[in-house]
Amino acid sequence: MSVEIPTFSVSLKIVGENGDPVPGATVAAKGVTLPADAQGAVQITRLSGPLHATASAPGHLAEPVVAGWEDKGKVLTIRLLSAKEGRWVMHSGGDMMLGRRYQTPVEGTPLIPLDNAAEGARNVVKDVAQAFALGDLGTVNLETAVSDLPSSAAYPGKRFVLNSPSAAMSALKELGVDVAFLANNHTRDYGEEGLRRTKTALDVQGVKYQGASDVEAAAYEPLVVSVKGVRVGLLSWTSVTGTVVNDSYPVDGDPVPANLPADEAWQYQPRSWGYAGLSVPVASRRIGSAWRLFRDGEASLTEPERAAAWASLSAVYPELQDWVARRGHGGGAMWRDSQSPAAIAALKQQADLAVVQLHSGYQYAAVPSDTLRANAHAAIDAGADIVICHHPHVTQGFEWYKGHLIAYSLGNFVFDQDFLATFSGFFLRTVWDGSTLVEARLVPTELSAYRPVPTSGAASLRTALGVWEKCLLGAEFRRDPADDVTKTIEIDQDADTVAAHVIRDGSSYLITSQVPPRVPVDMVLSPGASASVTFDGLIDSRLGLTPGSAAGLLIGRDLFGWGRFEDETADASADGSTHWTTDGTRKEVVFGDAAQGRGFLRLTRYSTSGTLVLVRPVARVPLQQHRLYRSINGEIVPADPPATYTLRFMARISAPAEAKVNFQSFRFDDTDPTADPTSTVLAQQTVAIQIASGGTWQPVEIAIPPALLATGGITANQILFYIQLFPPTLGKAMLDIDELELIEWRSASEMPARFGAFSRVKNTGNASVSLQFDGMPIER
Question: Counting beta carbons within 10 angstroms of the beta carbon of residue 483, is it exposed (0 to 12), middle (13 to 18) or buried (19 or more)?
């Protein structure tokens, strides 16, 4: 039986830049505006979940505020910057679309139904809109065609096609988006007609756009807007062009794969094509062979000749992919080393500030690609004041290059992907005095059932720490020529590059070049014991050990992150089931006497019930054999030791009943750009949960067998677990779960010398160990 959800109060203190209370300060939340007292204090009472509010005062910039249960009993200080003349705020969001699963979900009703797309889209973004709309200039990467065209009008042969309803652009207006950047690999998904309709849909909402057009030259035109008297110049490019797909198409003579899907047979079917301008005689060729003849000869052509040759080729092979504005057709603006820096320099002649956005890198990579870093640095060398990047769909880090900020990936802002790593993101808040950056901060968000919501507590901290760790990784994502696999590889930073650091300030996180102090962290572990690292910050991955010593000490991180069952999303629901498949009855989150905190997961089953009761995360948890590699004498080798894994949680059961965890391992393969990704179940295993009945919380730790993660020479890169409750002998049984973690363990003494977001330490030895190691606190 669920316990009534309690309420709590939050105390805020509104101060100015000098730390003194601000006269006339107010806090607005849920349609109510509360004035601060003479000391700047505001108390907000009777909250049932995290608060999303706006702090403001005359003559100051309004600041978004997120506060949750962890702020109960504390005073949260919110610092307002003065709104002096020429000072303004830019809010930058990451990848955004409003189609696909928003319209046709796997289950349930559409969030954005076609017969009411405008209202549906506004509802999708409403929880984050109040915070994002506080910017004077709001931008997003709009990664979709926007049209009401039928699917038959989509780009032929493209693996992933994104199209959002025209009416759904109401979400941009709700968010306060002023500029949609279109230089990406999806704005041409419905061809030139789709681009024309995209521009029309944005015009209807009063949203400006830059970076793509149905006309080639127009895609490269800069946009200059005036923000509080400051001329802000905007340019964007993408390096994701479609060429890699074309390079992967089969050529004449390649064997036809066994069990080739019928809808991919066209790749092996020859067609007649030739082009005199390329000295290519008419002949019957597969798409890959025709492409290579064009690719190898187009450099010798003039622009008009290249456009004509492409028109001839693509008329015969419409599945050839070209997503950017070139060869006589429209699309996204493509980065060119020979032209893009000059365009930035020219923009600086007509604007006070140059904002550059780059759509580049590898999807789902933790760090930028070598190409992206080179292009971002080139943009700043040419005059860009800030560079903001996207495309990986996961968060990456920041760096300062020649004193200018580069944000490598903001993650997803509004998107429908189903990978665990794609749920967490942030929007970037930058404050400017004219063209001078005053401060930058990240505001964490989470896609909960595809809806973006601000986060509080451990969820917000986890996002910030993850970004900070990536800032300090000192690595690029690039291909290892030995096995043609992309890896995170150490690099030597140049003298112009300074690592960024993250500082918690109020309810968001400052991005700074200030190196934090190192503080000692002490731990004592008895033989066989593991313990949580109770430290808000990054810690030494070696735990202060010298390489090769104390092999029995393991350092661990929680790969899942959503096993606390606390309400940490600032939405309209008081619920701690984020990213779990609960149903509110047989499997639900209950607030009450949890093992720690307030919330826990409860499964209920009756002896007479034949209905299966199980619960799982909504997405598989990613696994990585190695997180970092280094080059030694030209050979790319792992820089960290191999991992082992355990599922750890607190559990209790009210009556004798069998409970189990079923593990399933997967190999997800997205390496072939010409085919849909494959997902193969490698193995599965069911393990009993060993706990005594009686309703007492007990620790459970289940080691995941190595055989589950490697089968037939194939290594798993994803895992999913199901918690199952079977019928009791009599009556009713309730299984409660709390503090669940899927922990990745590695030998601490073999780790690379880095600071990371680790959550546990384990002593596998036979003697007690006293540890003292360095930590970098996120709180200053």
Answer: exposed
**Same structural domain for residues 534 and 502?**
no
For residue 416, give Cα distances in angstroms to 144, 393, 426, 573: 12, 11, 16, 20
CATH label of the domain that carries residue 619? 2.60.120.260
For residue 345, tell me if it sits in a domain.
Answer: no
HSE-CB of 33 using CA atoms within 13 angstroms: 7
Number of CB atoms found within 10 A of residue 519's CB: 11
- Residue 4 is predicted with a pLDDT of 62
**Structure confidence at residue 426 (pLDDT):** 98
* Confidence (pTM): 0.96
Cβ atoms within 10 Å of 647's Cβ, excluding its own: 23
Q: What string of H, E and C letters represents the secondary structure of 73-100?
A: CCEEEEECCECCCCEEEEEEEEEECCCH
Count the domains in the chain.
4
Euclidean distance between CA atoms 599 and 461, whole angstroms: 18
Instruction: State the DSSP code for 514.
Output: P
SS3 (DSSP) at 276: helix
Whether the Cβ atoms of residue 37 and residue 26 lie closer than 8 Å to each other: no
Is 368 among the domain residues?
yes
Residue 538 shares a structural domain with residue 436: no
427 contacts 441 by C-beta, under 8 angstroms: no
* Cα–Cα nearest to 699, from 568, 532, 587: 532
d(C-alpha 366, C-alpha 424), whole Å: 13
**Do 592 and 649 fall within a single domain?**
yes
Give the tens place of pLDDT for each residue, 411-431: 999 999 999 999 999 999 999
Domain extent for 38: 8-79
Identify whether 714 is part of a domain.
yes
Element at 770 (helix H, strand E):
strand 769-777
Helix, coil or strand: residue 152: helix
Q: What is the pLDDT of residue 1?
A: 41
Which H helix or E strand runs over 464? helix 457-471
The residue ranges of DSSP E strands in 434-474, in sequence order, are 436-448, 451-454
Cα angle vertex 44, ends 39, 46, to 5°? 155
Residue type at 115 in one-letter notation: D
Query: What pLDDT is recorded for position 5?
Result: 67
The CATH number of the domain holding residue 44 is 2.60.40.1120
Structure tokens at 648: 């750890």
* 607 and 690 in a common domain: yes
- The closest alpha carbon to 721, from 653, 648, 583, 621, belongs to 621
Spatial contact of 721 and 518, defined as CB atoms under 8 Å apart:
no
Do the domain assignments include residue 297?
yes
The list of the chain residues with pLDDT below 70 reads 1-5, 550
The span from the CA of 432 to the CA of 439, in Å, is: 7
User: Are 139 and 285 in the same domain?
Assistant: no
**Which residue among 79, 110, 142 closes a domain?**
79
What 3-state class would DSSP assign to 345? helix
Contacts of range 298-307, beta carbons closer than 8 Å, 24 or more positions apart: 298/327, 301/277, 303/328, 304/328, 305/277
678, two tokens: 């494959």
**Co-location of 419 and 464 in the same domain:** yes
Nearest residue to 162 via CA among 185, 193, 196, 192: 185
Instruction: Please tell me what DSSP assigns to residue 533.
Output: -
Whether residue 71 sits in one domain with residue 51:
yes
Report which of 168, 17, 8 is spatially closest to residue 96, judged by C-alpha positions: 168
Rounded to 10 degrees, the C-alpha dihedral 343/345/350/353 comes to 110
Could you report the per-residue pLDDT of 573-625, keeping only the tens digit for each? 889 999 999 999 999 999 999 999 999 999 999 999 988 899 999 999 999 99
370: exposed, middle or buried (Cβ count in 10 Å: 0-12, 13-18, 19+): middle
> In terms of domains, do 220 and 282 share one?
no
Q: Write the DSSP string, 634-685.
A: TEEEESS---EEEEEEEEEESSS--EEEEEEEEEEE---TTS--EEEEEEEE
Q: Supply the CATH number for residue 167's domain.
A: 3.60.21
